[in-house]
Automatic annotation (TrEMBL):
GO terms for cellular component: extracellular space; plasma membrane. The keyword Calcium does not apply. This is Leucine rich repeat containing 70. It is found in: Cell membrane. It comes from Zonotrichia albicollis. The chain crosses the membrane at residues 12-29, 50-67.
């Protein structure tokens, strides 16, 4: 073997140590050397032209790696690629990279320019559990784009929703579709998502929800609808969600709570109606919320509350009524929740006085916030002093 060829061989062997894929080549070379040990030893004494074996194997491996290296990694634009987690956030991608590792569990493609998603783009990702494609300028997703993702449990997507898009996502438990400019949720939108537990539809433009939009979502426990254009509580749609525990309708122009608006939500524990321009609550407005423990009614236009407002909330523990226009609180308003209510926030209203009878039923109250109200100067004589709580902000 000539001196030049010997130097080249040493260089290639050095690359074998640095590149893990070269070990494949070395294994082949070692096997060949075992079979032809005698011939290879003789090559040392012969001319290089009659002993091309070792050099040829390594040279072929080198060329193969040059051509196939991209197939084992991620595009250079991606910030992270470990084989289990891939992060290509804000990378300027126009499509889903073809060479992502098929063993990937978490994929972040947020903030790109991916306009279309086809069935081939996500084919073969049998272990994929979480896919983030929010803020990626997606215009269209093929209805069968997610067919071959059997273990997907978290999906964050921004796009138009073609009918049947989620029908194959039987394992998805968390679906985030916020900031999608959705205006209408038609019937069967989430058909097939039998495992779904959390649905985030916040900050869209939803003004109408079909009565059957949430059909088959028996396991849904969290529903976020804040920041939309709903003119009223979508009673018929949400009434199907028998296992719902947390509901947010904040920042919608609802205006009023109609009778039986939450009928069927017997397991609901948290309800937020913050900043919904609420002026009144009809009789039996909170009917059926037997297990509700926290109610948020902050930043609304309520002017008065009375014994009919919260009649059925017998297990309520936290009630936030701050930043309304409440000037009148009738006797018996808090009577039914007297043994359960611990925190009552009435700050930033128009209250000038509170009669002792109003607060007397609240035997379990630990925190009462009534600061920033135009109190009558004799208020400290009228308020009961046996609650052991602070009536004014420190």
């Amino acid at each position: 073997m000539s001196q030049t060829q010997n130097i080249d061989l040493q260089l290639f062997l050095h690359l074998c140590v640095l590149e893990p894929f070269w070990y494949i080549c070395l294994s082949v070379l070692k096997s060949e050397r075992t079979k032809k040990a005698k011939d290879r030893d003789m090559c040392v004494l012969q001319s290089s032209s009659s002993c091309p074996g070792a050099f040829l194997y390594i040279f072929n491996c080198f060329l193969w790696l040059l051509l196939q290296k991209e197939a084992f990694g991620c595009p250079s634009a991606c910030q992270l690629c470990t084989g289990r987690q891939v992060s290509c956030r804000n990378a300027g991608l126009s499509r889903i990279p073809w060479n992502l590792p098929k063993t990937t569990i978490l994929v972040y493609l947020s903030g790109n320019n991916i306009s279309h998603v086809t069935p081939n783009d996500l084919r073969g990702f049998l272990k994929l559990a979480a896919l983030h494609m929010d803020n990626s300028s997606i215009l269209y997703v093929h209805p069968k784009a997610f067919v071959e993702l059997p273990k997907l449990c978290y999906l964050h997507l921004n796009t138009f929703l073609p009918r049947g898009l989620f029908s194959d996502l039987l394992s998805v438990r968390y679906l985030t579709l916020q900031r999608n400019r959705l205006s209408v949720l038609g019937s069967g939108t989430f058909w097939g998502m039998i495992s779904l537990q959390t649905l985030n539809l916040a900050n869209n433009k939803i003004s109408r929800i079909s009565d059957a939009a949430f059909h088959h979502l028996e396991n849904l426990t969290y529903l976020f609808l804040e920041g939309n254009n709903l003119p009223l509580v979508p009673s018929n749609a949400i009434g199907r969600l028998k296992n719902l525990e947390r509901l947010s309708l904040s920042h919608n122009p609802i205006g009023s709570i109609q009778s039986f608006a939450f009928k069927g939500l017997n397991k609901l524990k948290y309800l937020s109606l913050k900043n919904v321009k609420l002026k009144c609550v009809a009789v039996n407005g909170f009917f059926g919320l037997n297990n509700l423990s926290q109610l948020v009614l902050s930043y609304n236009n309520l002017e008065m509350i009375n014994s009919g407002t919260f009649t059925l909330l017998t297990n309520l523990m936290y009630l936030q009524l701050d930043r309304n226009r409440i000037g009148s609180i009738g006797n018996g308003t808090f009577e039914k929740m007297g043994r359960s209510l611990k925190v009552l926030n009435l700050a930033f209203n128009n209250i000038t006085e509170l009669q002792p009878e109003v607060l007397k039923p609240l035997v379990s109250l630990t925190h009462l916030q009534v600061y920033a109200n135009p109190w009558n100067c004799l208020m400290h004589f009228i308020l009961p002093l046996n609650f052991g709580v602070s009536f004014f902000k420190a």
